[in-house]
Amino acid sequence: MKKLVVYFFGLISYVGLAQSQGETYGGKYTFNPSNLPCISSAQKAAIKEQLATSIASLEKQDKLTKVNTKMIQQFSWPVRKSSESEFADFWGISNFVDHDAAFPDKLRDYTCGVRTYDTNSGYNHQGLDIYTWPFTWFQMENDMAEIIAPADGVIIFKSDGKPDKSCSFNNNQWNAVYLRHDDGSVTWFGHMKSGSLTSKNVGESVVRGEYLGVIGSSGNSTGPHLHFEIYDSSDNLIDPYNGICNNTTTWWADQKEYYEPNINAVLTHSAPPVFNTCPTTETVNLSDEFAPNVNVYLASYFRDQQSGTTANYRLYRPNGSVFSAWNRNFTNTWSSSYWYWSFNNLTDIGDWRFEVTYQGKTESKTFKVGSSTLSIEDKQLEKVAVGPNPFQNTLKLNGIAFDLTNYEAIVYNNLGQQVYKNINMTAEMNLSFLTNGIYFLKIQSKTASGSKTFPIIKN
């Protein structure tokens, strides 16, 4: 397919309350803008020959039912998020079937719009492209987006083991599964992740909603997406959508709208996300635990952002009060976009909530500031506690069942500045020199990565 482009903007705007926030960043994310075909003519011809041979063989083995020509096939959506995904949603559409056979730049999708493409060589897009968003490579790496059977059917061919990190046009074969359904129609599922395909063999049946594989970037592809292609019992290409420029009965059990505005994810980051050069996985910098007064990046990821609409943002303190509220007014219609803000003045200890409302839908993300346990990799620290807390002069460590000489103590103020360090730890620390206020005591191993952090109060 085509390459992806991320348009990045730095903007200053939209503070709704007195609390300050940093600059606004984000913009348009475009999947596959460079007009490369999903599959070559030679590859398509070879696949059709393989499918015809396989169908003939399966019919002889009585593994295919007789075609029901009176059946009206209706498909369910062919992708779903896996149990590994914590995103609210995970997909966007980059291209529909092109109904204008002329080329180049003669585009007509089922609504007579131009959400499709063709090429100078005469390729007109012949399927539905569903890409993963946000973090398309991150989702592939973590098996977060699954391809599923849109209807009952029989596996008539499958291809696996091909490279799945394609970034440009090439002659590689894709990993794919092909199904034949009771009405004789055939569905193609291309660009799958290598090694992710269903363990079922050719000739075995699948049911609607059954797992087929993971969205990948094998074959002619520049990023993870599903190329979904449909043929009827007479081997005619089918656009499953009903519209002005495709005046036919829809093949969808529940046809989606042309645009499906949505909040795909609300996330918190320790640093801005980085969209690396294909095929390097994005540097997502996801985090849900922060020290006070450090940069917290609050991000929202949209599908089908619509011009003339507004997203509403709220940031709630641990006590439930609103810390900041602001809006983002959209002036462009984009298939995917992202917007984030940085805050460095969050001091209240506890669970904060970042909430986004768009087009009648609300998604939120809870994160911690000053968590009592920021990280524990050394199990010996799990039972350690401090007391008294608040303290006046001396702070004691309780629950110690290990050699303290292997650990050191560091105290930070609420600005994140180090104010005390002791590399020769004892069970009691004289901290009388500290002024009254909130601090953070971090006990960390000198030889391993284990650590534990406590909020402490000097009074």
Q: What does this molecule look like?
A:
The chain has 459 residues and is mainly β. 6% of the residues lie in helices and 36% in strands. The protein has helices spanning 41-60, 136-141; strands spanning 5-6, 9-11, 24-30, 79-81, 91-95, 128-132, 145-148, 153-159, 176-180, 186-190, 205-206, 211-214, 225-231, 237-238, 262-269, 289-290, 296-305, 310-316, 322-329, 334-343, 350-358, 361-369, 385-387, 394-398, 407-413, 418-422, 428-430, 437-445, 451-458. The strands form 6 sheets. Strands 5, 6, 8, 9, 10, 11, 13 and 14 form an 8-stranded antiparallel beta sheet that branches. Strands 1, 2, 3, 15, 17 and 20 form a 6-stranded antiparallel beta sheet that branches. A 5-stranded mixed beta sheet has the order 16-22-21-18-19, with no helix packed on it. The longest helix has 20 residues, at 41-60. It is elongated and about 85 Å long. Residues 1-20 and 372-377 have low confidence and may be disordered.
